[in-house]
Amino acid sequence: MDFLQSQETLTTLEWTLRAVIAYFFLILVAKAMGQRSIAQLRLLDFVIALMIGNIIAHPLSDEHLGLKGSLTTTVVLMVLYVGSVYIIIKLPRVRKLINPAPITLVKDGDIDYKGLSKARISIDVLLEELREEKVEDIKKVALALWEADGKVSVFLDPKYNPLTPATYKMKPEPFDLPKTIIKEGIIYPNVLKQVNKDEVWVVEKLEKIYHTNIKNVLLATIDNKENLKVFLYK
To answer: Which of 21, 28, 93, 212 stands 20 to 30 A from 145 (CA)?
Structure first.
């Protein structure tokens, strides 16, 4: 385990072992820190990501730096991070300090310039965020908020919301997630059993409707109504 300590020189194998240990160690750290730190890069997450990245990166490129110290420091930071998240959850005052309240960017179709300045974003960025939400006209926006994680939450004026079955008090079809029965030319017998079908049925359907075989199928799904959707290699 000498390769964990600082050395005058390291062999190729020792460099490789350092990289492998650091790789799996960071995976364990990310797992322990939770999905939130990966999915939503808030202030606390951003700070900890920068620190851990710098701490682990240097021993992987400088043989004079030991890896053991970096691993120990990272564990301490992970404990501090998890403890900070727990405190944020339990203490609202601390939560407001770390995760500030949303900033209003648009209200009732009007741009809040003070909100833009506070969030430090330009008109171009605001327009880009609205386009990503499929909003082409600011006048249609009832409220747009700049969230703590850097995302914009957009709420349309009710008269511009799309019509849904609930609008006409209609009973919609229950949600049905199609099941994958073929992926990249490989059939899934266990999934077929769930929908009371077998491979013979699939082969017949493919030959009759698509004039092809299983090997040519990139993806095939089936829903509870036995609707088969097939995507072929092109």
So the answer is: 93
